[in-house]
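In these records, each integer encodes one residue's backbone shape. Here is one protein:

___
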Amino acid sequence: MELKNYMEQHDRIREELEILKRLCKNRDLEQTSSEIALHISSLAGKLKIHLSSEDQYLYPSFLRSGDSRLVNQAEEYQKEMGNLLALFTEFKDKYNTKIKILSERESFFGEAEKIMRSIEVRMQKEERGLYRLVR
């Protein structure tokens, strides 16, 4: 199975995460909130494409593989994926504009850090676990 496309998608998602981390590190929302909102929306698009592709093509092929380790891990990851997508969608809807970010500035940084970390952990888990089973 060819995982190159999925790894490239992970790389593009990581690029957005790094930009967001850099912007958040500044802590000056008056200066950066518009750009942060732009990258939250960009990340949302990249995640939607990636997760849709995984859900429609990659995971079904894992589940049909006949390899019980791969099937079990794919089932576990699919359950987790739904939760991550729901959490990110909630975050995106809450912070996808400058006004929304500025009106929730007290909670923004903590929530941003938490969701970005969850996405990173998810990708690492796939790359170090599930993807290695099919290489």
